[in-house]
Each structure stands twice: as structure tokens, then as C-alpha cells.
Amino acid sequence: MNLTRIPARIFFAAALGMPAAASADSIAAAWESHQVEFHYAGFTSDYTCDGIRGQLKLLLRAVGARDDLRIEANCGGFSNEPQPFHRLKLAFSVPVPAPGGGSPGETFPAEWREVRIGRGQPRGMDWGDCELVEQFADQLLPAFNPLQLEDRVHCVPHQRTLGQPDLRMTLLVPAVEAAVPVE
User: Alpha-carbon distance 119 to 6, whole Å?
Assistant: First the structure.
């Protein structure tokens, strides 16, 4: 970790195990756990087990899921071969507004932020991920309670469509200051 890039107040708060000071726009949030079964059916892009797990992790982290997320894939003996269909079990936590402001030590600062998922955002997403983003939006995004959702994902089976996928929303995500690890 490069300590020269972390403001001193955040570093000392983290070192003492105290929450970082919240910005004026932040709200108290708590983590809400989810366990979901995700089904992928691809006509344009096939994924290996590691490939789909990696792309789903990128998507979940981009929309504010906590780092300790788990993704289990049932690939049988075909884990290294691209497959058009996958069934995965996901366990992840999402930030939600803390009821009544929450209790100190159980909450963290979070903020409403515009998030975009599209080609190159987050890094590693491509045109071929359109169906995955479309199915992610249908099956997993509701757990994040997005506001102002603009779903411009229009996938065409067996074609990589320019400009796709394009998904924009406002989500509650941990404030940058809250992302400093406490060791």
C-alpha cells in the first residue's frame, strides 16, 4: 500500500481502528448479505469456469459489492473449456442505508454515485460480454437497489454489437475513505 497517497487523517483513523471521517455527502451504511443462484445462457460468448467467475467478480465489485464475495461454479469436468451455459452460486454483501443512522463500529460512510457498465468499464469488459451484462442486470442488479437505472443493453444473439453493453445507474457504494483497509 502506498501510504503517501492516503490523507493523514484517514491513515491514522485506520491505524487506530476508527472509522474515517465522513464527507458531507456521505451517509451511514451497513452491509446486507445476499446468496443468489445465477444462471448464464450465452449465444454469442462462451466462458470457462474461471472466465465467468472473473467477469462476474468485476461486475459485482463495480457496483459496490464487498471484497469478500464468493462465486462457486458447477462446471463438472469441463472447467477449462468454454461453455455456453453456467449455473453459479454467489454470496456477496451490498451497502444499504443504516436504519436510524446505525451504531458506530457497525456502519461505514457510503455515498450515492453514478456507475456505468459498458465496454471497457470496468476494465476488462468487452462487446462480447453483452449477454453477461444483460443477465447480470436482470438477475443480480436488483439486490443493489439501483436508482435512476438506464438500461441500454440490447444484445443481438450471435453478434457483437458496437456500443454494447451500456448500463448506467446510481448506486450506494462505500465512500473512497471507507475503502481504506483496517489492519
Answer: 30
